[in-house]
Design goal:
Helices cover 34% and strands 14% of the residues. By secondary structure, it is of the alpha/beta class. It has a 7-stranded mixed sheet with strand order 2-8-7-6-5-3-4, sandwiched between helices. It has a 3-stranded antiparallel sheet with strand order 9-12-11, covered by helices on one side.
Length: 373
């Protein structure tokens, strides 16, 4: 695949190696938002079906991306909302154990911490180890006392790839609930929620799904069928599409994950953005995105004479770059930005995140600054 920068409105003078911070909008997504914004001038043209059509299309596209069914997908405003929706329906676990990983993203950590406190359960935080792989440590920690495992699909700071299939299988074996934050890989890396036995997959859309802020998507599996949503929305009821019948109050929810939709889920400006981005990601395919970013990562490591073998535990699209001893990461970040090269500092490393709009020229510009530091 060739570089896809022409599909974005990125300044050609900029090397944006920071998709894990926020993904840029596609030109097609921008145009879709502007089109829908124009429709707001004439609300008399808005039909009842318009409140639902695009959300259902987005459900279907996201389901295709993660190998799920569209009725297993909920529209959420944030990952914290998704975690709360799932965890509030996983109760009666007093004396059990929850597991997460060291330096998990705060919204995930605080969600599992609160759950453990409310359930009077213990919380085990698994860090890396020089003796065992991180994945092996997690698998060893999951036992008959484990009620919940909440981790990211890849670590947000360094791109470490968690073995979701093995972890999911172990969770299923002991009866634990497996919740995954897919924000830093879904849309860039293949995932199959069924093969990984994931019970809930929670994703913000503004990173690798190339969508807008304040909109997320979630998969809820069988453990959450019949669950209680956080809100009492009218939009997820069985008679919600019959506007003349809304006060014939129906308690029944639409099937499966629909019940977990946030209120006002239509998002008339945001939803068209997300729909276009999902269509494009599916057209590219996440396999192709991984192949393309793998080549760029390899090119970078070869120039810097770094050991690519030891970086295989991290993702192709997101990884931490080791820095020279004594080098100040924040000062280096400032030097890079002065040269219009954008990455993130996470901990004591530079986090580099690549997408199809990057090319070898971006890598060369990054290396040029690193070699001067």
């Amino acid at each position: 695949m060739d570089c896809q920068k022409h599909l974005f409105s990125i300044d050609p003078e900029i090397s944006y190696l920071n998709n894990a911070y926020r993904g840029p909008l596609l030109k097609a997504s921008e145009n879709a938002a502007l089109t829908d914004l124009g429709k707001m001038r004439n609300p008399q043209e808005l039909q009842p079906s318009d409140f639902f059509t695009e959300t259902e299309e987005v459900r279907g596209l996201f389901a295709q991306l993660i190998s799920a069914q569209s009725d297993e997908i909920a529209i959420i405003p944030s990952t914290s909302y998704g975690f709360a929706s799932a965890l509030s329906n996983w109760t009666d676990q007093k004396g059990k154990k929850a597991i997460t990983v060291k330096d998990e993203f705060p919204s995930g950590y605080f969600a599992v911490k609160r759950w453990a406190e409310e359930q009077e359960a213990s919380l085990e935080v698994i860090g890396e180890d020089s003796e065992l792989s991180w994945n092996d440590k997690i698998l060893a920690a999951i036992d008959e006392h484990t009620a919940l495992v909440l981790i990211s699909s890849v670590h947000w700071m360094n791109g470490y790839i968690f073995d979701l299939e093995a972890i999911g299988a172990k969770c299923q074996k002991v009866g634990a609930c497996f919740i995954v934050d897919g924000t830093q890989s879904v849309g860039a890396k293949p995932i199959d929620v069924k093969a990984c036995k994931i019970d809930a997959l929670i994703c913000a859309t503004y990173k690798w799904l190339l969508g807008p802020y304040s909109l997320g998507l979630a998969y809820f599996g069988e453990k959450f069928e019949g669950g209680k949503p956080l809100e009492e929305s009218w939009m997820n009821r069985t008679n919600s599409r019959n506007f003349s019948d809304l006060t014939n109050y129906r308690q029944e929810f639409l099937p499966k994950a629909h019940r977990f939709d946030v209120g006002e889920s239509s998002h008339f400006i945001l939803m068209p953005i997300l729909k276009k981005s999902l269509e494009q990601i599916l057209q590219w395919s996440t396999d192709e995105i991984q192949h393309y970013t793998s080549d760029l990562k390899k090119y970078l490591f070869e120039i810097l004479e770094l050991d690519l073998f030891h970086s295989q535990s991290s993702s192709n699209h997101l990884f931490a770059l080791p820095l020279k001893s004594g080098l100040n990461p924040q000062a280096l970040k400032s030097d890079l930005e002065n040269e219009k090269v954008f990455v993130s500092v996470r901990g004591q490393s530079l986090r580099v995140s690549l997408h199809l709009y990057n090319d070898q020229n971006d890598i060369k510009r990054l290396v040029s600054v690193l070699e001067k530091s």
